[in-house]
Amino acid sequence: MAGIKFLLGMFPETAKLEQKWNQLRNDYEAFTTFENSDELRYYENLQKEVNSLEFNLKIKEIKARKFKQTEEFHKEQEFLRLKKSKPIVTYFKVLNSDKLREFEITEKSPELKRYHELGEYLRSDGFIKEKASMSSKEFKNSEAGIKENEYKTASKSTVIRNFLKFEKSADYREYMRVKDSDELKKYNELEKIMNSEEFLKVKNYMALSPKEKYEASDEFKKVQEYQLLNKSDKIVWFYKTKKRYPFKYVEKWELSFEDTFEGAKLDTKKWINKYYYGEKQLHKNYVMADDRHAFTEGRNIEFFDKKIRIVTKREPAKALVWDATRGFYEKDFDFTSDMISTADLFNQKYGLIEAKVKIAGTGVTQSFSLLTDQRLPHVDVFKFDKNRLSSGNFWKNGSEKGHSKSISKTSGSRFTKDYFIFTLEWLPGKMTWKINDLVFKVQTQGLPETPMFLMFNASLKEKANDEGLPSAMEIDWVRVYKMKE
Fold this sequence. Notes:
The protein is α+β, with helices and mostly antiparallel strands. Helix content is 42%, strand content 26%. It contains 19 helices and 17 strands. A hairpin with a 6-residue loop joins strand 11 and strand 12. The longest helix is centred in the N-terminal third of the chain and has 22 residues, at 14-35. The protein is rod-shaped, with a radius of gyration of 54 Å.
């Protein structure tokens, strides 16, 4: 039954209503696409991670980090211990001393070489025997005596004496011991580590404040990214929409048929210009006995601005007529009109059937109906006749008449001034007719239980006023949805 808004003609504006439903369907598609996206999965995983106990304990651990707790600290301590140890101190003291440099120069000098050669000679048996066999005067002038005197002179030289003194020193002996030791090798390895970029990076990081340590972490970057995503328009829209979830009605339906008439001719994969039997058996159209027009099988179909017009006009034509008592016969007419039907190209049981239509305000009968290959059942989504608009259901029964009907009517003039969206919601056990989303009629009995096809029809009936011709019923779009599993 029509509500008070319907009765008062308080119809939502068609353009705004269409925009609302298009936006809702677009939003639903965007919502479901985003709901199953990698982008949302990434955000939700990130959200779960940054809000987890483990993650927050990790942040506390990062802020509490101390250099003393690191392996680098222990290596530094070991390095400092070695650096202060007496052997290493002595080694580097000698290594960097002038005495060592003088020692190494003397060590390679001809003077030291001659000194060692003379010393070796003086310690030889030959020299000892030769000296013993001579008198002091003879020995003094002999070659052996001259060499002995040369050795004594060399032994008194400052260079040789300093060399020998340094060579016998405790520091030099310690230097030589440490030079090839594992201790020095370990020290050098640690020193290299102490000067490495990796070590300095750790030490500098550990010198930061707890806040600075946290801000340098990957965890901080993740929190920043999460906070940024959390405020993003897409995420905010998604969760706000999810909370109120305006798609419960939309998600029930899945588009199964659509025509927006964007081409320059009728899509023959969707529509025919004949009645069902005219297509299947006669291969041409026909009209009913009370019609004053001939159907032109598409010649009275016009396209403009992505819309279709079914035109009724004064024009002589010949057509086949069906009369229940006489059968088929030909007749001359003064008017022509047209129709479109999905016949056996598309039919459906249950669903949401809707079309955006502008009705011509003339005596032409215009209708949007659901039919089968039988006379009944028959459903009028709308029918405009004699300035009245009706919606109805016609079905077989066991009475004497053999059929029943349920029709709701309202004044039709207001529907000729603009486009309106006519909707039939066909559910098991219930049919609801709506005009611009306002309920016009509800029925729960005598409902069809078989798939039905669509038909738009413009016809000029007997006794109808033929003023205002030519006229046209205009259809912007047609959509059919089926219920999702």
